[in-house]
Protein backbone atom coordinates (compact mmCIF):
# COMPACT_ATOMS: atom_id res chain seq x y z
CA UNK A 1 0.00 0.00 0.00
CA UNK A 2 1.41 3.27 -1.02
CA UNK A 3 1.45 6.01 1.59
CA UNK A 4 1.04 9.63 0.62
CA UNK A 5 3.97 11.84 1.40
CA UNK A 6 2.09 13.96 3.92
CA UNK A 7 0.93 10.84 5.72
CA UNK A 8 4.37 9.37 6.17
CA UNK A 9 6.06 9.72 9.45
CA UNK A 10 9.37 10.69 7.99
CA UNK A 11 10.75 14.20 7.95
CA UNK A 12 11.40 14.15 4.22
CA UNK A 13 9.75 17.02 2.52
CA UNK A 14 8.59 16.52 -1.01
CA UNK A 15 8.32 19.63 -3.16
CA UNK A 16 5.82 19.63 -5.99
CA UNK A 17 6.79 21.94 -8.81
CA UNK A 18 4.84 22.90 -11.90
CA UNK A 19 6.93 23.57 -14.91
CA UNK A 20 5.15 26.35 -16.79
CA UNK A 21 8.05 27.48 -18.81
CA UNK A 22 7.01 25.54 -21.87
CA UNK A 23 3.27 26.06 -21.49
CA UNK A 24 1.61 28.12 -24.14
CA UNK A 25 -0.44 31.12 -22.95
CA UNK A 26 -4.19 30.58 -23.05
CA UNK A 27 -5.05 34.30 -23.22
CA UNK A 28 -4.35 37.73 -21.76
CA UNK A 29 -4.31 38.01 -17.95
CA UNK A 30 -7.49 39.08 -16.21
CA UNK A 31 -5.83 42.06 -14.48
CA UNK A 32 -4.00 45.27 -15.35
CA UNK A 33 -0.64 45.92 -13.80
CA UNK A 34 -0.40 49.21 -11.92
CA UNK A 35 2.41 50.86 -10.05
CA UNK A 36 1.86 50.95 -6.31
CA UNK A 37 1.95 54.38 -4.67
CA UNK A 38 4.59 54.71 -1.98
CA UNK A 39 4.04 58.39 -1.08
CA UNK A 40 1.06 60.71 -0.49
CA UNK A 41 2.12 63.20 -3.14
CA UNK A 42 0.18 63.58 -6.41
CA UNK A 43 1.78 61.52 -9.16
CA UNK A 44 3.36 63.37 -12.03
CA UNK A 45 1.08 63.21 -15.10
CA UNK A 46 2.39 61.46 -18.11
CA UNK A 47 3.73 63.75 -20.74
CA UNK A 48 1.44 64.27 -23.74
CA UNK A 49 2.67 62.91 -27.03
CA UNK A 50 4.35 65.54 -29.13
CA UNK A 51 2.14 67.19 -31.74
CA UNK A 52 2.94 66.39 -35.33
CA UNK A 53 5.01 69.03 -36.98
CA UNK A 54 2.93 71.58 -38.88
CA UNK A 55 3.73 72.65 -42.33
CA UNK A 56 5.60 75.85 -42.37
CA UNK A 57 3.40 78.80 -43.36
CA UNK A 58 4.58 80.38 -46.51
CA UNK A 59 4.96 84.07 -45.92
CA UNK A 60 4.10 86.16 -48.92
CA UNK A 61 6.11 89.28 -49.33
CA UNK A 62 3.72 91.85 -50.81
CA UNK A 63 5.41 94.24 -53.20
CA UNK A 64 5.28 97.92 -52.37
CA UNK A 65 3.07 98.78 -55.41
CA UNK A 66 0.48 96.29 -54.13
CA UNK A 67 0.51 97.92 -50.69
CA UNK A 68 0.10 101.35 -52.25
CA UNK A 69 -2.80 100.01 -54.33
CA UNK A 70 -4.54 98.70 -51.19
CA UNK A 71 -4.07 102.05 -49.44
CA UNK A 72 -5.55 103.92 -52.41
CA UNK A 73 -8.46 101.46 -52.54
CA UNK A 74 -9.28 101.98 -48.85
CA UNK A 75 -8.90 105.72 -49.18
CA UNK A 76 -11.33 105.65 -52.10
CA UNK A 77 -13.67 103.40 -50.10
CA UNK A 78 -13.82 105.87 -47.23
CA UNK A 79 -14.78 108.75 -49.50
CA UNK A 80 -18.48 109.47 -49.99
CA UNK A 81 -19.72 108.62 -53.48
CA UNK A 82 -23.33 108.89 -54.75
CA UNK A 83 -23.04 105.77 -56.90
CA UNK A 84 -24.60 103.49 -54.29
CA UNK A 85 -21.66 101.04 -54.13
CA UNK A 86 -21.35 99.65 -50.61
CA UNK A 87 -18.07 99.37 -48.71
CA UNK A 88 -18.48 95.62 -48.33
CA UNK A 89 -18.65 95.24 -52.11
CA UNK A 90 -15.45 97.28 -52.52
CA UNK A 91 -13.61 95.19 -49.92
CA UNK A 92 -14.74 91.95 -51.55
CA UNK A 93 -13.67 93.20 -54.98
CA UNK A 94 -10.24 94.26 -53.64
CA UNK A 95 -9.69 90.84 -52.09
CA UNK A 96 -10.70 89.12 -55.34
CA UNK A 97 -8.32 91.26 -57.43
CA UNK A 98 -5.29 90.65 -55.22
CA UNK A 99 -6.04 86.95 -54.72
CA UNK A 100 -6.38 86.41 -58.45
CA UNK A 101 -3.11 88.20 -59.12
CA UNK A 102 -1.28 86.19 -56.43
CA UNK A 103 -2.56 82.86 -57.71
CA UNK A 104 -1.47 83.78 -61.23
CA UNK A 105 1.98 84.97 -60.03
CA UNK A 106 1.34 88.43 -61.48
CA UNK A 107 1.94 90.57 -58.40
CA UNK A 108 5.16 91.93 -59.90
CA UNK A 109 3.83 92.06 -63.46
CA UNK A 110 0.66 94.14 -63.10
CA UNK A 111 1.12 97.88 -63.29
CA UNK A 112 -0.55 98.65 -59.94
CA UNK A 113 -0.27 102.47 -60.10
CA UNK A 114 -2.45 102.52 -63.24
CA UNK A 115 -4.62 99.51 -62.36
CA UNK A 116 -8.32 100.48 -61.86
CA UNK A 117 -9.47 100.68 -58.27
CA UNK A 118 -12.19 98.29 -57.04
CA UNK A 119 -14.83 101.03 -57.25
CA UNK A 120 -14.00 101.62 -60.91
CA UNK A 121 -14.17 97.89 -61.65
CA UNK A 122 -17.60 97.65 -60.00
CA UNK A 123 -18.85 100.63 -62.02
CA UNK A 124 -17.69 99.01 -65.26
CA UNK A 125 -19.41 95.73 -64.39
CA UNK A 126 -22.68 97.45 -63.50
CA UNK A 127 -22.62 99.54 -66.66
CA UNK A 128 -22.16 96.39 -68.75
CA UNK A 129 -25.13 94.75 -67.03
CA UNK A 130 -27.32 97.81 -67.58
CA UNK A 131 -26.45 98.00 -71.27
CA UNK A 132 -27.21 94.30 -71.71
CA UNK A 133 -30.62 94.65 -70.04
CA UNK A 134 -31.46 97.71 -72.17
CA UNK A 135 -30.46 95.80 -75.29
CA UNK A 136 -32.75 92.89 -74.39
CA UNK A 137 -35.58 95.32 -73.67
CA UNK A 138 -35.13 97.07 -77.01
CA UNK A 139 -35.11 93.73 -78.81
CA UNK A 140 -38.36 92.79 -77.04
CA UNK A 141 -39.91 96.10 -78.08
CA UNK A 142 -38.86 95.56 -81.68
CA UNK A 143 -40.26 92.05 -81.70
CA UNK A 144 -43.65 93.24 -80.35
CA UNK A 145 -46.18 93.30 -83.20
CA UNK A 146 -47.88 96.57 -83.98
CA UNK A 147 -51.61 97.17 -83.70
CA UNK A 148 -52.21 96.62 -87.41
CA UNK A 149 -50.72 93.13 -87.46
CA UNK A 150 -52.97 90.19 -86.65
CA UNK A 151 -52.81 89.05 -83.02
CA UNK A 152 -51.76 85.41 -82.64
CA UNK A 153 -54.16 83.16 -80.76
CA UNK A 154 -51.89 82.77 -77.71
CA UNK A 155 -51.87 86.57 -77.17
CA UNK A 156 -55.61 87.08 -77.36
CA UNK A 157 -57.03 87.97 -73.96
CA UNK A 158 -60.14 86.30 -72.56
CA UNK A 159 -59.50 83.23 -74.68
CA UNK A 160 -61.49 80.35 -73.27
CA UNK A 161 -59.88 77.09 -72.21
CA UNK A 162 -61.80 75.16 -74.84
CA UNK A 163 -60.50 77.44 -77.60
CA UNK A 164 -56.90 77.04 -76.42
CA UNK A 165 -57.32 73.27 -76.46
CA UNK A 166 -59.16 73.00 -79.77
CA UNK A 167 -57.08 75.58 -81.66
CA UNK A 168 -53.35 74.78 -81.49
CA UNK A 169 -50.92 76.84 -83.51
CA UNK A 170 -50.85 76.21 -87.30
CA UNK A 171 -47.13 75.38 -87.21
CA UNK A 172 -47.67 72.56 -84.70
CA UNK A 173 -50.61 71.20 -86.66
CA UNK A 174 -48.61 71.20 -89.89
CA UNK A 175 -45.60 69.55 -88.23
CA UNK A 176 -47.73 66.79 -86.74
CA UNK A 177 -49.49 66.26 -90.06
CA UNK A 178 -46.18 65.92 -91.91
CA UNK A 179 -44.90 63.40 -89.36
CA UNK A 180 -48.09 61.37 -89.63
CA UNK A 181 -47.97 61.29 -93.43
CA UNK A 182 -44.36 60.13 -93.34
CA UNK A 183 -45.06 57.19 -91.02
CA UNK A 184 -48.70 56.20 -91.66
CA UNK A 185 -49.58 53.47 -94.21
CA UNK A 186 -51.47 54.45 -97.40
CA UNK A 187 -54.69 52.80 -96.20
CA UNK A 188 -54.69 54.94 -93.07
CA UNK A 189 -54.15 58.09 -95.10
CA UNK A 190 -57.07 57.29 -97.40
CA UNK A 191 -59.38 56.70 -94.43
CA UNK A 192 -58.26 59.97 -92.89
CA UNK A 193 -58.93 61.86 -96.13
CA UNK A 194 -62.44 60.41 -96.37
CA UNK A 195 -63.13 61.41 -92.78
CA UNK A 196 -61.86 64.93 -93.42
CA UNK A 197 -64.15 65.30 -96.42
CA UNK A 198 -67.15 64.11 -94.41
CA UNK A 199 -66.62 66.66 -91.68
CA UNK A 200 -65.69 69.49 -94.06
CA UNK A 201 -69.38 70.12 -94.73
CA UNK A 202 -70.08 71.28 -91.19
CA UNK A 203 -66.76 72.81 -90.29
CA UNK A 204 -65.25 75.98 -91.69
CA UNK A 205 -61.76 75.20 -90.38
CA UNK A 206 -59.58 77.05 -87.92
CA UNK A 207 -59.68 80.28 -89.91
CA UNK A 208 -63.39 80.74 -89.35
CA UNK A 209 -64.11 83.76 -87.10
CA UNK A 210 -66.93 81.85 -85.36
CA UNK A 211 -65.44 79.07 -83.27
CA UNK A 212 -67.71 77.51 -80.71
CA UNK A 213 -67.00 75.33 -77.73
CA UNK A 214 -69.27 73.00 -75.76
CA UNK A 215 -69.57 75.57 -72.98
CA UNK A 216 -70.28 78.58 -75.20
CA UNK A 217 -73.78 79.48 -76.21
CA UNK A 218 -72.73 82.22 -78.63
CA UNK A 219 -70.12 82.75 -81.37
CA UNK A 220 -66.93 84.75 -81.11
CA UNK A 221 -67.36 87.40 -83.84
CA UNK A 222 -64.48 89.32 -85.26
CA UNK A 223 -63.81 92.68 -83.65
CA UNK A 224 -64.25 94.39 -87.02
CA UNK A 225 -67.68 92.85 -87.60
CA UNK A 226 -70.71 94.84 -86.51
CA UNK A 227 -73.79 93.43 -84.80
CA UNK A 228 -76.16 91.25 -86.78
CA UNK A 229 -79.67 92.74 -86.93
CA UNK A 230 -82.21 89.92 -86.97
CA UNK A 231 -85.37 89.78 -89.08
CA UNK A 232 -86.90 86.47 -87.99
CA UNK A 233 -90.45 86.57 -86.61
CA UNK A 234 -90.49 83.13 -85.00
CA UNK A 235 -91.03 83.04 -81.26
CA UNK A 236 -89.47 79.61 -80.74
CA UNK A 237 -86.18 78.41 -82.20
CA UNK A 238 -83.98 75.46 -81.32
CA UNK A 239 -80.46 76.14 -80.11
CA UNK A 240 -77.51 75.27 -82.36
CA UNK A 241 -73.89 76.22 -81.86
CA UNK A 242 -72.80 78.57 -84.61
CA UNK A 243 -70.14 77.33 -87.01
CA UNK A 244 -70.58 80.19 -89.48
CA UNK A 245 -71.59 83.87 -89.35
CA UNK A 246 -75.26 84.16 -88.34
CA UNK A 247 -77.79 85.03 -91.00
CA UNK A 248 -80.24 87.86 -90.25
CA UNK A 249 -83.21 85.76 -91.35
CA UNK A 250 -82.45 83.23 -88.59
CA UNK A 251 -81.98 85.79 -85.79
CA UNK A 252 -84.92 87.31 -83.92
CA UNK A 253 -84.96 91.07 -83.25
CA UNK A 254 -85.39 92.58 -79.80
CA UNK A 255 -89.19 93.00 -79.85
CA UNK A 256 -89.63 89.34 -80.88
CA UNK A 257 -87.22 88.23 -78.15
CA UNK A 258 -89.33 90.01 -75.53
CA UNK A 259 -92.37 88.06 -76.68
CA UNK A 260 -90.31 84.87 -76.58
CA UNK A 261 -89.32 85.48 -72.95
CA UNK A 262 -92.94 85.92 -71.87
CA UNK A 263 -93.89 82.74 -73.74
CA UNK A 264 -91.11 80.71 -72.12
CA UNK A 265 -92.02 81.88 -68.60
CA UNK A 266 -95.67 80.88 -69.16
CA UNK A 267 -94.67 77.48 -70.55
CA UNK A 268 -92.36 76.83 -67.63
CA UNK A 269 -95.14 77.53 -65.13
CA UNK A 270 -97.58 75.30 -67.03
CA UNK A 271 -95.42 72.41 -68.28
CA UNK A 272 -92.13 72.38 -66.30
CA UNK A 273 -90.32 70.81 -69.27
CA UNK A 274 -86.78 71.81 -68.35
CA UNK A 275 -85.07 70.26 -71.37
CA UNK A 276 -87.19 72.29 -73.77
CA UNK A 277 -87.04 75.50 -71.69
CA UNK A 278 -83.25 75.34 -71.31
CA UNK A 279 -82.79 74.85 -75.06
CA UNK A 280 -85.04 77.82 -75.82
CA UNK A 281 -83.29 80.06 -73.29
CA UNK A 282 -79.87 79.23 -74.76
CA UNK A 283 -81.20 80.13 -78.20
CA UNK A 284 -82.58 83.37 -76.78
CA UNK A 285 -79.23 84.24 -75.20
CA UNK A 286 -77.46 83.46 -78.46
CA UNK A 287 -79.65 85.91 -80.40
CA UNK A 288 -78.89 88.59 -77.82
CA UNK A 289 -75.16 87.99 -78.13
CA UNK A 290 -74.91 88.08 -81.93
CA UNK A 291 -76.85 91.36 -81.95
CA UNK A 292 -74.68 92.89 -79.18
CA UNK A 293 -77.74 93.60 -77.05
CA UNK A 294 -76.82 94.46 -73.45
CA UNK A 295 -79.63 96.25 -71.67
CA UNK A 296 -82.17 95.71 -68.92
CA UNK A 297 -83.92 93.05 -70.99
CA UNK A 298 -80.67 91.07 -71.23
CA UNK A 299 -80.48 91.10 -67.43
CA UNK A 300 -84.07 89.81 -67.24
CA UNK A 301 -83.25 86.91 -69.57
CA UNK A 302 -80.17 85.77 -67.64
CA UNK A 303 -81.88 86.16 -64.27
CA UNK A 304 -84.88 84.10 -65.40
CA UNK A 305 -82.67 81.34 -66.81
CA UNK A 306 -80.52 81.29 -63.66
CA UNK A 307 -83.57 80.92 -61.40
CA UNK A 308 -84.96 78.06 -63.48
CA UNK A 309 -81.55 76.34 -63.50
CA UNK A 310 -81.36 76.68 -59.71
CA UNK A 311 -84.81 75.19 -59.33
CA UNK A 312 -83.74 72.12 -61.33
CA UNK A 313 -80.25 71.92 -59.78
CA UNK A 314 -78.43 72.62 -63.08
CA UNK A 315 -75.32 74.30 -61.71
CA UNK A 316 -73.61 74.42 -65.11
CA UNK A 317 -76.21 76.73 -66.67
CA UNK A 318 -76.53 78.64 -63.40
CA UNK A 319 -72.79 79.41 -63.37
CA UNK A 320 -72.87 80.63 -66.98
CA UNK A 321 -75.75 82.96 -66.19
CA UNK A 322 -74.14 84.14 -62.95
CA UNK A 323 -70.92 85.02 -64.79
CA UNK A 324 -72.77 87.09 -67.39
CA UNK A 325 -74.88 88.79 -64.72
CA UNK A 326 -71.78 89.95 -62.85
CA UNK A 327 -70.60 91.67 -66.04
CA UNK A 328 -74.02 93.20 -66.71
CA UNK A 329 -74.40 94.48 -63.14
CA UNK A 330 -71.09 96.33 -63.48
CA UNK A 331 -72.72 98.26 -66.34
CA UNK A 332 -75.26 99.67 -63.82
CA UNK A 333 -78.19 97.93 -65.49
CA UNK A 334 -81.40 97.34 -63.59
CA UNK A 335 -81.94 93.93 -62.09
CA UNK A 336 -81.57 92.07 -58.80
CA UNK A 337 -77.87 92.32 -57.92
CA UNK A 338 -78.46 91.75 -54.20
CA UNK A 339 -80.37 88.52 -54.81
CA UNK A 340 -77.69 87.03 -57.04
CA UNK A 341 -74.88 88.25 -54.80
CA UNK A 342 -76.48 86.22 -52.02
CA UNK A 343 -76.68 83.22 -54.37
CA UNK A 344 -72.98 83.61 -55.10
CA UNK A 345 -72.10 83.58 -51.38
CA UNK A 346 -74.21 80.46 -50.78
CA UNK A 347 -72.71 78.73 -53.83
CA UNK A 348 -69.21 79.51 -52.53
CA UNK A 349 -70.18 77.93 -49.19
CA UNK A 350 -71.33 74.85 -51.10
CA UNK A 351 -68.02 74.55 -52.99
CA UNK A 352 -65.92 75.30 -49.84
CA UNK A 353 -63.79 77.69 -51.91
CA UNK A 354 -62.10 79.89 -49.33
CA UNK A 355 -60.19 81.96 -51.86
CA UNK A 356 -63.36 82.92 -53.74
CA UNK A 357 -65.14 83.61 -50.46
CA UNK A 358 -62.35 85.97 -49.39
CA UNK A 359 -62.62 87.77 -52.73
CA UNK A 360 -66.40 88.11 -52.38
CA UNK A 361 -66.14 89.45 -48.84
CA UNK A 362 -63.42 91.90 -49.87
CA UNK A 363 -65.58 93.27 -52.70
CA UNK A 364 -68.66 93.79 -50.51
CA UNK A 365 -69.70 97.39 -50.02
CA UNK A 366 -71.82 98.88 -47.26
CA UNK A 367 -74.71 99.11 -49.73
CA UNK A 368 -74.39 95.41 -50.61
CA UNK A 369 -74.62 94.45 -46.95
CA UNK A 370 -77.99 96.19 -46.66
CA UNK A 371 -79.75 93.68 -48.95
CA UNK A 372 -81.81 91.24 -46.85
CA UNK A 373 -80.69 88.26 -48.95
CA UNK A 374 -77.03 89.24 -48.55
CA UNK A 375 -77.50 89.62 -44.78
CA UNK A 376 -78.99 86.13 -44.66
CA UNK A 377 -76.13 84.61 -46.72
CA UNK A 378 -73.50 86.29 -44.53
CA UNK A 379 -75.28 85.00 -41.41
CA UNK A 380 -75.16 81.47 -42.87
CA UNK A 381 -71.44 81.80 -43.48
CA UNK A 382 -70.84 83.14 -39.96
CA UNK A 383 -72.85 80.34 -38.33
CA UNK A 384 -70.83 77.66 -40.13
CA UNK A 385 -67.53 79.42 -39.44
CA UNK A 386 -68.28 79.48 -35.69
CA UNK A 387 -69.89 76.02 -35.56
CA UNK A 388 -73.28 77.41 -34.47
CA UNK A 389 -75.41 74.69 -36.08
CA UNK A 390 -78.54 75.68 -34.14
CA UNK A 391 -78.50 79.08 -35.82
CA UNK A 392 -77.62 77.52 -39.18
CA UNK A 393 -80.71 75.30 -39.26
CA UNK A 394 -82.90 78.23 -38.22
CA UNK A 395 -81.49 80.24 -41.13
CA UNK A 396 -82.10 77.27 -43.43
CA UNK A 397 -85.82 77.48 -42.66
CA UNK A 398 -85.81 81.25 -43.25
CA UNK A 399 -84.07 81.33 -46.65
CA UNK A 400 -85.31 84.23 -48.82
CA UNK A 401 -85.91 84.02 -52.58
CA UNK A 402 -84.39 80.79 -53.97
CA UNK A 403 -81.56 80.46 -51.47
CA UNK A 404 -83.09 77.25 -50.11
CA UNK A 405 -82.33 75.49 -53.41
CA UNK A 406 -78.63 76.25 -52.95
CA UNK A 407 -78.66 75.38 -49.25
CA UNK A 408 -80.29 72.04 -50.07
CA UNK A 409 -77.02 71.10 -51.76
CA UNK A 410 -74.93 71.31 -48.59
CA UNK A 411 -77.42 70.99 -45.71
CA UNK A 412 -76.89 67.20 -45.45
CA UNK A 413 -73.14 67.73 -45.23
CA UNK A 414 -73.64 70.15 -42.35
CA UNK A 415 -76.09 67.76 -40.65
CA UNK A 416 -73.36 65.12 -40.52
CA UNK A 417 -70.89 67.69 -39.17
CA UNK A 418 -73.41 68.74 -36.50
CA UNK A 419 -73.99 65.12 -35.44
CA UNK A 420 -70.23 64.58 -35.23
CA UNK A 421 -69.91 67.64 -32.99
CA UNK A 422 -72.72 66.38 -30.75
CA UNK A 423 -71.08 62.95 -30.43
CA UNK A 424 -67.73 64.48 -29.54
CA UNK A 425 -69.39 66.59 -26.85
From TrEMBL:
For bias kind Basic and acidic residues, which ranges apply? 170-179
Q: Where is the PCI domain?
A: 314-425
Could you name the Gene Ontology cellular component terms for this entry? nucleus
Q: Which Pfam families does this chain map to? A: SAC3_GANP
Enumerate the residue ranges of region (Disordered). Answer: 133-231
Q: What's the protein name?
A: PCI domain-containing protein
| Organism per entry | Aureobasidium uvarum
Upper classification of the organism: Eukaryota, Fungi, Dikarya, Ascomycota, Pezizomycotina
Amino acid sequence: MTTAPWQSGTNDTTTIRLDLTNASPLGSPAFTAVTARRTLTRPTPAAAPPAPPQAATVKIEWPQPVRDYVQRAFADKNDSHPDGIEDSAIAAKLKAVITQAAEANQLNIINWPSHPLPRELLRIERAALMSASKKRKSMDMESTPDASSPIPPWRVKNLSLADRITNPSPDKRQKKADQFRATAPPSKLSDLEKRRQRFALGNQGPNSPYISSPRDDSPMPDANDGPCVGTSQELEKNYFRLTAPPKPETVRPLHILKQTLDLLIRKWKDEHNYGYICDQFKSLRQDLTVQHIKNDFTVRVYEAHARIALEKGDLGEYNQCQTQLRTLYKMKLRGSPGEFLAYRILYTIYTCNRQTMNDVLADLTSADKQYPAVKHALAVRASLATGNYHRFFRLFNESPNMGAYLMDMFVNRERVAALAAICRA
